[in-house]
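Any chance you could type out a protein's amino acid sequence plus the matching backbone structure tokens because I've never seen that pairing?

——
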Amino acid sequence: MVLRDFNMNDIDSLVLFLNGKNVSKFLTSRIPQPYSIDDAKWWVNTGSKNGITKAVEINGKLVGTIGVITGEFESNRSAEIGYWFEQNSWGKGIATEAVMTMTNDIFFEYQYNSSFRPSF
């Protein structure tokens, strides 16, 4: 599994996955439905550049995304992780691995200030 930045090669997969009924029913209302090519282009060029957002790739193929939104004001020492995966990736431990990798990255690579440190 690789966490990487989104690129233009991801557009067709984003449109396919985010229009899948079983994937889209769990998504935030911030993701347009139906999901268009223009939506995917905006995501790759602009949306995915905000905060910490990564494409999740398995064997060279996009399978989903994971991102972190940091808290504000009195919650500035907290963060929320969100993710989605295409349906064929469900039940294979990919989300667990992605969350563990992202959690490690936000504490150690991105230097989030916290008294909690993951032990995995």
In short: The CA atoms of residues 74 and 99 lie 24 Å apart. The radius of gyration is 15 Å.
